[in-house]
Amino acid sequence: MRAQTLPAAAGWQWILSGFAIFKRNPPMLSMLVISYWFTVIFLNILPIVGALVASLLIPGLSVGLMQASRNLERGQPVGLQTLFGGLKENTKTLLALGALYLFCTLGILGLSALIDGGDLFNYMLADTKAERLTLEEADFVLPALLVMALLVPLMMAYWFAPILAAWHRLTLGRSLFFSFVACWMNWRPFMVFIAGLFLIAGIIPGVLLGLLLSLFPGAQGFITAIVMVLMGLIVAPVIFASFYACYRDIFGISEIA
Fold first, then answer.
1. Dist CA 242 CA 230 (whole Å)
2. Residues near 7 by Cβ (< 8 Å), separated by ≥ 6?
3. Are 108 and 157 in contact (CB under 8 A)?
4. Cβ 58 vs Cβ 65: under 8 Å
């Protein structure tokens, strides 16, 4: 297993590559991303068990989206079965990744309770808006900083882990290790990548929304809905495709088994 160290500019190139992949079949990639979201949302409707099942399946579903991006780039067929086909690749390891990520995330939130007595943990797990309102006056600054400091290395270890487990047949430990090392080696392009994502998913939609609301102040609900739909149908698929481009450039598609 080899990971290349790329220049900082590669981070922006991943986003451009994601857009190029998206342009090959916009309706299909958008449909798969929406299907991914609906699957996760539907499962989370079920109390406790649903959230657990969703966490277990997310790594496999993310592999399905990466497979769709790879197929589109190569001009190969893509369908709804592509999304769920990722669940068949090294299934046990993918399920273990989902379970481990859930356990670690809950553990990190649990550690924040040492600072705020569990306010942030309860806020994150609150089921209703009323429950969140009762906790809004709590001071979340220090526990949030702790959570972020611990989540960053967790996300680095998890970033490539599902695809490494599925496509390279790595074990749980090796997939997490090589993912972390690859992210560490490429922290510069990842910083540019994050800035680029903030630009296309935050600043540009925000400016567009503000401009439209200033021109049509009486259509706030309609305009907001339109911008959100565009985010879901265009921006989100581009971002998911850019994740594949990120993997492709760092690990190289020639290494795919």
1. 17
2. 188, 189
3. no
4. no
**Residues 71-90 as b or e (16 or more Cβ within 10 Å = b):** bbbeeeebeeebbbbbbebb
Residue ranges of domains in the chain:
13-255
Nearest of 122, 90, 74 to residue 241 by alpha carbon: 74
Contact 196, 18 (CB under 8 A): no
Q: Which residue type is seen at 107?
A: G
What average pLDDT does the segment 195-223 reach?
89
The 3-state secondary structure of the chain, one letter per residue: CCCCCCCCCHHHHHHHHHHHHHHHCHHHHHHHHHHHHHHHHHHHHCCCHHHHHHHHHHHHHHHHHHHHHHHHHHCCCCCHHHHHHHHHCCHHHHHHHHHHHHHHHHHHHHHHHHHHCCHHHHHHHCCCHHHHHCCCCCCCHHHHHHHHHHHHHHHHHHHCHHHHHHHCCCCHHHHHHHHHHHHHHCHHHHHHHHHHHHHHHHHHHHHHHHHHHHHCHHHHHHHHHHHHHHHHHHHHHHHHHHHHHHHHHHHCHHHCC
Check whether 172 has a pLDDT greater than 50: yes
Note the pLDDT tens digit of each residue in 40-74. 999 988 877 888 999 999 999 999 999 999 999 99
Supply the pTM of this predicted model.
0.87
In tens, the pLDDT along 199-209 reads 999 999 889 88
Q: How far apart are CA 130 and CA 116, in angstroms?
A: 20
**Rounded Cα distance, 19 and 185, in Å:** 25
Which residue shows structure tokens 């290349």?
A: 4
